[in-house]
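Following up on my earlier thread - several people asked me to post the actual chain instead of describing it. Fair enough. Here it is, all 287 residues.
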Amino acid sequence: MATSPYMIDVTGDSFDHAVLARSREVPVLVDFWAAWCAPCRSLMPILAKLAEEYQGRFFLAKVNSDEQQGLAARFGVRSLPTVKLFKQGAEVAQFVGAQPERMIRELLDAHIDRPSDALLRAALDQEATGDRDGALARLKGAHETDPKNDRLTAHLGRLLCEQGRVTDSEAILKGLSPRALGDAEIGAIMARLEFVRMTADAPPLTNLEQTIRAHPEDLRARMALGARYLLAGRHEEALEQWLTIVRTDRRFGDDAARRALLAAFTLLGGKSDLVRRYRGLLAAAIT
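Reply from S.P.:
Thanks for posting it. Predicted structure:
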């Protein structure tokens, strides 16, 4: 391997410092390889080329799995080549086998900070202070300079949708890459947008509550009330509305209530006690 300031051979003794500690400053791509592995030999020049091209925006660490069997075992490497990406001291992505350069670029770009990330953070801080119009303006400007930043695109689409500009939001979100849809944060944003769309033409929350008290069988109003509750942060009340619909008429709106519950689970992170409890209740309701 050619000498480069962006690549290094790593051993069991040096891994924690060379990979985990370094990854708190810049992402580190770790290539587990062996001399006898033909796919490893075809992958190496691609990784080396990218390391040089990215000029320090990520670091490439090479692990000879034959010589460092303990290290390979530590990270569960069972097939070669295995490539793992570390960021902030933790593994955030991996792939197995020789992959095309395009796919590797997409993986790297999803985790490497871009100049527009600073603008995104500033916009989100602005939104947190209540200046949503200022945040939207900042995100629009940043998106014009970097339309391929998926996180930025997702938050811009979210703000547009939350302001009722659903058509503009959908046009922006068409620019998301296929890989972005597998990202947990972006998945949560997309789930939230579904509930914003559901309430676009719905009556206010108090009106919907009055409707349900007078006509508990009104499933359309109950669907909208669930979305209103969710957007207001009243999560359990939202889940209860949709679970009631599933129990009453599973076919309503082409299974809309079950789909709303699944989207809400995504939005809420999928691992909270509330989500676990309602996953169980949903499973019981549809069996």
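The two ends are 58 Å apart (CA to CA). That should answer part of your original question.
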